[in-house]
Write a structure and sequence with these properties.
- The chain is mostly helical.
- The protein has a domain at 98-334.
- It has helices at 3-35, 44-62, 67-80, 86-93, 96-114, 116-128, 132-147, 152-170, 177-193, 202-213, 221-246, 257-267, 272-290, 307-317, 328-334, 337-355, 358-367, 375-389, 398-413, 418-428, 439-445, 455-477.
Length: 484
């Protein structure tokens, strides 16, 4: 056995031990929660739900089991713990959000397969020229703009691929400030852009669906955009400025404009596939926006005022003969099935936490005094806590499921619109860049151009601006859209 094989064997053995430790920790923690005396105000079903949550979080965070396998376990243990029958658990698992996220993977594939995303990126580079500092702005603004329609992970991956091509041509290696600025700026830009529209991130639709599950009213598409678009308009340029300031590029240019022009010429004019995708996406976006006013639709077309239905129909059209942007096998391979399973599992757990009384108990125990504070302080505290909790729960879909139900109950107790307490969590659930622990920063982190704590200074500054800006927008625009 050579040295490489010995090293691989030791790594495999170490990984196996880590997984066993994670499983043991989950079992022990779950057992402890089950055996503890039931706290005052919490019924036994709520305690069992808390135990299931604790065990699942440890398994997800440690990846002791594949994320999808842990997600299946949460389904199996709901009837085993006497929380609900398997049928209702499966019904909660296969929520509209599950299928919306599936369509987002299909749409992201369409942008990459047709080449439209790459064309958009090179078009933006052509507008920036070759100045290195302006190129940093292009990558941040481009990833953020694309992320408002395409999910944040593929948006980050698309711009990273183009950046790596430029790095290879210029000989940019890990340690370069230019490389560091772009590789940190891309995921932050994608996460910022993802809050521009409800379709920008699976977290947005998951959070909005939880509001409905908890008895709140559905937030119209344009009402979200009334807050989301101003956030993106301010935070994207700020992100580019911060990363360029913290990591000033050591080069002045990325070459000559002829290189960029040559790349665009190689792509040629818009292909028929690209035109088809533009037509499909334009129709979907128009219908999404019009869904905020269902009365505008004739009675027979009223179902098209449903955001989820439009996403499903739009993705189906991409497979119709004569359009056919790709095959179903290609769509299968491009789908993040672990993400889908995680979304389904946390949605089902959210329903159980409400029905078992766990959410109400958390409100009474931890947050009851919050209603006595000023609205500004409430929004700031909720948003800041959501930012910090990413360090302990680096699994974004879990955050709205854990936080929204108790906060909505708190809003009801205070006599306020529950959405006022829930929306800051949904918006700020994407503010996940203090450290590269979330799936989006991990897209670029693995390339080695920056270290774990390199993201912290930029991430902290932008997070503070995010919390302040979102609070101001909620207070200023909230009354205009019926939140306050």
């Amino acid at each position: 056995m050579n040295q490489a094989e010995q090293t691989a064997g030791r790594d495999a053995e170490g990984a196996s031990k880590s997984r066993l430790i994670g499983i043991a920790a989950a079992v022990i923690a779950t057992t402890i929660v089950l055996l503890l005396p039931t706290p005052d105000g919490l019924n036994p079903a709520g305690q069992r739900t808390a135990a299931l949550f604790v065990g699942a979080l440890i398994l997800w965070a440690s990846e002791a089991l594949p994320i999808a396998v842990t997600s299946l376990l949460t389904l199996a243990f709901q009837p085993l713990f006497g929380l609900t029958d398997l049928g209702p658990a499966l019904g909660n698992f296969m929520s509209p959000v599950f299928f919306f996220v599936l369509t987002m993977f299909i749409i992201a594939l369409a942008w990459t397969k047709t080449g439209l995303a790459r064309r958009f990126a090179w078009w933006m580079l052509s507008k920036a020229g070759t100045d290195a500092r302006r190129v940093i702005y292009v990558f941040v603004l481009g990833a953020g703009t694309l992320s408002m329609i395409v999910s944040d992970v593929p948006a980050a991956a698309i711009f990273m691929a183009i950046a790596l091509g430029i790095f290879a041509k210029l000989g940019i290696k890990p340690g370069s400030r230019f490389g560091k600025a772009i590789m940190i700026g891309i995921p932050i830009g994608a996460l910022v852009g993802g809050v521009g529209t409800p379709a920008g991130s699976s977290i947005n639709l998951l959070g909005l669906e939880i509001i409905v599950q908890q008895g709140g009213e559905r937030i119209p598409f344009v009402n979200w955009m009334a807050i989301g678009i101003p956030m993106v308009a301010v935070l994207l340029p700020l992100t580019a400025f911060v990363v360029a300031k913290l990591f000033p590029p050591e080069i002045e240019t990325i070459g000559v404009m002829d290189d960029i022009d040559a790349e665009r010429k190689r792509m040629g004019s818009l292909s028929s596939q690209e035109r088809k995708l533009i037509a499909i996406m334009s129709t979907m976006v128009v219908l999404w926006i019009l869904s905020s006013w269902p009365a505008l639709f004739p009675e027979i077309l009223r179902p098209l005022s449903n955001v989820f239905l439009v996403a499903i129909l739009g993705s189906v059209v991409m497979f119709v003969p004569g359009i056919r942007l790709f095959s179903w096998k290609e769509a299968q391979n491009a789908t993040g099935w672990e993400v889908l399973m995680l979304i389904g599992a946390v949605t089902a757990l959210g329903v159980v936490s409400r029905d078992s009384g766990l959410a109400q108990w958390l409100v009474d125990t931890l947050l009851s005094g919050l209603t006595e504070w000023n609205a500004v302080i409430i929004l700031l505290v909720i948003s800041a806590f959501t930012v910090v909790i990413h360090l302990m729960l680096p699994i974004n879909p879990v955050i709205p499921v854990v936080m929204i139900p108790p906060l909505m109950l708190l809003g009801e107790a205070a006599g306020l619109n529950p959405a006022l307490f829930a929306l800051p969590v949904i918006f700020t659930a994407s503010c996940a860049f203090l450290l590269p622990l979330d799936a989006v920063p991990l897209v670029t982190f693995g390339k080695g151009y920056y270290k774990m704590f390199d993201m912290l200074p930029a991430g902290a500054l932008i997070s503070v601006a995010w919390v302040i800006l979102m609070t101001v927008l909620m207070l200023v625009i909230g009354p205009l859209i019926g939140l306050i």
